[in-house]
Every structure is written in structure tokens, then in C-alpha cells.
Amino acid sequence: MIKVSPKAKRLLVPIVSVIAGFLVGAIIMLVWSYDPFQAYSSMFESALGSANGIGETIRNATPLIFIAIGFQISSAAGFFNIGLPGQAQAGWLTAIWIGLAFKGLPVYILLPFEIIAGSLAGALVAGIAGWLRAYFGTNEVISTIMLNYIVLYLCQYLHQDVMNKSLRVDTDTTKTVGASGSLRIPWLSEMFGGSRISGGIFLAIIALVIFWFLMKKTTVGFEIKAVGLNPFASRYAGMSDKKNIIISMLLSGAFCGLGGVVQGLGTYQNYFTQTTTLDIGWDGMSVALLGGMSAIGILLASLLFSILKIGGLGMQTAAGIPFEIVSIVIAAIIFFVAISWAVGLLFKEKKSDKTATYIATAETAGRQAANDQQKGGEA
Amino acid sequence: MNFVTVLALIVSSTLVYSAPLIFTALGGTFSENSGIVNVGLEGIMTMGAFTSIVFNLSFASTFGTATPWLGALLGGIVGIIFSLLHAVATVNWRADHVISGTVLNLMAPPLAVFLVKAIYNKGQTENINQNFGYFSFPGLANIPVIGPIFFKNTSAPAWVAIVLSIFLYWVLYKTRFGLRLRSSGENPQAADTLGINVYKMRYAGVLISGFLGGIGGAVFAEAIAGNFSVSTIAGQGFMALAAMIFGRYNPIGAMLSSLFFGFAQSLSIIGDQIPGISSLPSVYLQIAPYVLTIIVLVVFFGKTVGPAADGQNYIKSK
């Protein structure tokens, strides 16, 4: 056991979790006689070793930041929004459709139009679940799972049977959006070796700032958190739980929709038929679980996640090691983050000044009580 | 097509598609009643599916027609081992149940595909030769009208699952073990005071869900998919989770709502063989199961009530 200050412990626990995750991956590789050193070095090499690699890593992180923010806003209010893939998909199709249908508009009108419409589409999908929860008490886990599939098939129908044929290349793929409707920035792509990086990353950083501001500095954020912690106390304090449930789901869906928008307008430039729920939805959830409630945490987690994903592809080509190992590493890291209490046992906190410890204990006790209350409320 | 044939087709495909959901949802009820939320059913099913297919491919010539059943059993055992991760994390190490369960979902597909690649050098297995197929109950199948609809060319695992759900209802509500398990999920402090080992009960709940979830995945793989790839289990675990909540955390409820989901899913697959429905655009049939679920939930159930201490870590005071 190592003695550290409480502050150092807060930093050390996630770092140890990340290292432990990589170790799990290394052990699995050793068991199947792959070389972990070669694997990890080729992974970092391909994710960070070239301008193109860095560009692709950032490109991969961009939508995940939005979706992780979306997940965190709903979980702050006490909801498990598992409908991230559907909300992102709605945003993606909407943005591309508008980009293609209004191709002639100038960039300063078209781009905001696409982005706003995409986020509204995501908000609409999540809002349904929020409305059902607020007024009928419908379990949001079920309703958002169901909405994922409804959106999946509805998008297929809309894009294959409703969308004007002239906007599509064939049944499965739409045309690409023009320069005025795209988030790609020529000089940025050039700077990063012709990768698919887009202006979406700047929007993502703005979104992180908004997220931080929303949750820490505004009444809306405060009420969402309050309702999440203790719906009874919040109602007693005059906050409307119905209103906050719906607002948090709308905001959550709007951010997820934006994740789909940057994936569409930034990465692919078109929409094509999806056969399963959208990957970025689940990846975004992983990022949120890794990054926790803080904006910086989400940014770092999205980058780590993307280094692993993009590097994993390079590792497969360069070292011949199955790509799946990086997903195992990601899952293992999240596992260690989840059991941070047990990981924390490795470190013993130095006796710091008494008041700090006292406040910390009071805080945990309070949270426990709030949890009990909330559970009671659901029952 | 006459009426009985259409009905027989609907019933048999409903049973085929429900079987994996029933097993998995039953597992879910035990985990949740012991107080551990288990959103990792999807991952557990994936491991069960993977195990059963590998076993089936390797031992089909040795065990013949018993292979799928043995494969399902082995899938269940691997499900137990896999769910141990969730049990240790949530019972002993105070992990958030939802995050830990999500880890199972994130871990299973890459782990299984990695192993498939390591064993077979490709991302997808061959098709199995010994699958569950169709089963006719001797005797019962000859009953006029009812026989052909329910007992002829039907899914044997589904009938096992239905009988199992009644047995598990008895276990959960009529035995000492069931009472102890439920009290660990309702009020762990009180249960502990009365000398019940809450940790042990919660382990039992999670491991039972691992066993049944593994079987559910294996049944899906060996009765419907026929091989294993990354997309073999695509959402069935979540459907089972929904069925369990829909069934109000009760084994028989979980079984009935799994049958409902299985029915709705099979409609979109056999719809074009049924006169009247085949003329509808396919999108309606595709989204029907999911829309119906939401509507039924809103209209008939409203708030679902779970065990009071479901999702809360129980930390034994020293």
C-alpha cells in the first residue's frame, strides 16, 4: 500500500485503471502468443505517428465527445439513456437530407440549418422517452431501447422509400453533400495529411465548454442535478421534476443528434443504410463512462478511446494482431474505473487536515441517503 | 393456406424466437430480485452463443443430436464464469451496476471475436451441422387442431423454457431460497440482521442470470443464427432485459412478455407468408414489435416496480 495525499489519489486511480486495462490486453495477447510490445508500439505509431493518424484520431473522437455529453446530461438527471445510437442516427440522416435538399443555399445559412435540424431530430427522439417517463412513468431503459430500433428501421424506410431518388446514388447510399453543406475544412484536412478531420472538432470543444457551463453555472444544470440526486427534495424546493426530466432528455438527445451530424457532415459526407444500431452511440457511452461528469474527463477519454480504435486498425495491418484486442482493453479500462473503490485500496490516504476528510465523508453519506431516497421514489 | 397452417406457422416461429429471450429474461429476474441490476445480459448471451457454436463445431460428430443441448449447457457454464466479473465488481467492489453490466456488453463481442480469430483464423465461424431444428411431441402432436398448432414441428427449447419459468416462479416465491434472495433485493439491511448472507444471495442471483443468459445465447446461436460472428447477438439481450422489466421482475411475467416479443419479432419475418399482412410496407412490420411494446407499457402498466434495493450496493457494516 502506498501513502499518497487524497488529491494525488484522485489522479492516480484513473491512471492505474488505464495501465491495468493495457495489462489485461497484454496478458490476453501473451496467452495467444502475440507480442504485446509490438502490438502497443504499432498501435501508438499508427494513431499518433503521422499527421494523418492524428487527424483520424481526432476525427474519431469528435462525434464521441457530443454523444458522451448527451449521455452525461441524462445520467445527471438520473436516467440511463441507452438510446444514444438512435438519437445520433436521427441527427445524421436529418443533416444529410437537408444538406442535399437545400444544396443551393449559401454556407452561412445551410450549415447552421443542418446542424440545428440534426440536433432537433436527436432531441425529438430522446424527448419521446422523456415525455413518456415524465407523464406515464414509463421505464426509460425500455423506451430508449425500443426507440433505437424504431429509428433504425424508420431511417431505412425514409431514406430508401421517401427520400427523392435524385438525392441518392443507389438504394443504399445518398449523394455527398456539397462544399457549402460540409463541415470539412480544406486547410485543416491538408494540415492533417488528407485525413477526414473536420471543423466538427471546434464545435465539439465549444460543446464541452457549454456542457461545463450548463452543469456548473446555470439554474437548468443545477435543477437537473438536483432532480437526479433527490427528486423529492427537489419537488419540495419548488422544482418541477416533470419539466426537468423532459429538459434533460431533450438536451441529451440534442447533443447525441449533433454527434450524428458531425459524423455525417464531417466524416462521411453522406448517409448510407445502417443494418445495426449505430456504433458511435455505444462508443460514446464508453467515453462517457470513462470520462465521468467532467468536460476535461470526456475530452481525454474520447482521445484515449480514439487512439486505441484508430491505432488498433493500424496494429492489425502492421503487426497482424486482431483488432478486437483494443476493444478488450477499452472494456477492461472501464471495468477498472467502475471498481475504482477497490483500485483505491492500493493507495492509503495520508492524514490530511481534519475538516477536508469530514466534508468528504459527509458528502458520501449525503449521496448515499439521496440514492436511497431516489430508489424509494422509483418504487 | 388454411387457418390452422397459418396459426401453426405463427405459433412455431413465435416459440423459436421467444426461446432465447425467455431463458435470458428468467436469468434477469433472479439477478434483479437479488438486488443487482444486470444490463450485461447481452454480453452474457454473446459468450454463451460463442461457446455453444465452438463446442458444436468441435463435437458434433461425437455427440450427434445431443450436441446442441450439451452446447447450451456449456454456454450456460461459460455464462456463469463471465458473469462472475459482474458479481465480484458489484457485490464486493462497490461498482455501479449499470457501468459494470455495460462492461460485460463491451467486453464480450471483442473477446469472442478475438478467440474466433485466434482459433479459426477468420472473423466468423462455419455453420453448425447439428442445430436444434424442429421437434414434434410424440402423442401430443396427433391431437386434432391443437396438436399441429402447438406440438408438431415446434421448438423444444421454447417448451423447456416455458416449463422452467413455472419452476423458477415456484423457486422465487415458494421456497426459502427464493424468499431470502428477494429479501436481499428488497431490504438488504433487514435481511442481514436476520442472518441472511446478502452477499451470497446476490452472488447466487447474478450467477443464475449468467447461467440462463448463457443458455439463452446458445439457444439463439444453435436454433436461429447457425454460426457465430460479431453480429450474432445483436440486441436480443436488451430485448430480454426489456421483457424482464415488462414482466414486472417475475419469472412468469418475463416468460409471457418474452413470448410477446418473440411473436412480434417473428411477425416481421414470416409476415410476407401471411395473407392480409403481406401487402403492408415492410417498415410497419419491422417497427411494430417496438412500437407495440411502448404502447402496451404506457397503456397497461405505467410505472414498473422493481425490487426496492435494486441497483444499490450493500456495504456490510463492520
Question: Characteristics of this structure?
Answer:
heterodimer; A: 379 residues; mainly alpha; two-stranded parallel sheet; two-stranded antiparallel ribbon; 3% strand; disordered C terminus; B: 318 residues; ABC transporter involved in vitamin B12 uptake, BtuC; 12 helices; globular
Kindly report the average pLDDT value of chain A. 88
Instruction: Please give the oligomerization state of what you see.
Output: heterodimer
CATH architectural category of chain B: Orthogonal Bundle
| Overall form of chain B | globular
The number of domains of chain B: 1
- Straight-line distance between termini of chain A: 41 Å
Largest interface: A-B, 51 and 52 residues
Biggest β-sheet description of chain B: none
The portion of residues forming beta strands of chain A comes to under 5%
Unreliable sequence segments of chain B: none
Low-confidence stretches of chain A: 354-360, 372-379
| Helix-strand category of chain B | mainly alpha
Helical proportion of chain A, percent range: over 70%
Lateral arrangement of strands in the main beta sheet of chain A: 1-4
Strand runs of chain B, count: 0
Strand percent estimate of chain B: under 5%
How far the N terminus sits from the C terminus of chain B, by CA atoms, comes to: 69 Å
Keywords (chain B): Cell membrane, Membrane, Transmembrane, Transmembrane helix
Subcellular location (chain B): Cell membrane
Transmembrane segments (chain B): 34-57, 69-91, 97-120, 132-150, 156-173, 203-221, 253-271, 283-302
Organism (chain B): Lactobacillus delbrueckii subsp. lactis
Provide a brief overview of the structure:
The complex is a heterodimer of chains A (379) and B (318). With 379 residues, chain A is an all-alpha fold. Helix content of chain A is 76%, strand content 3%.
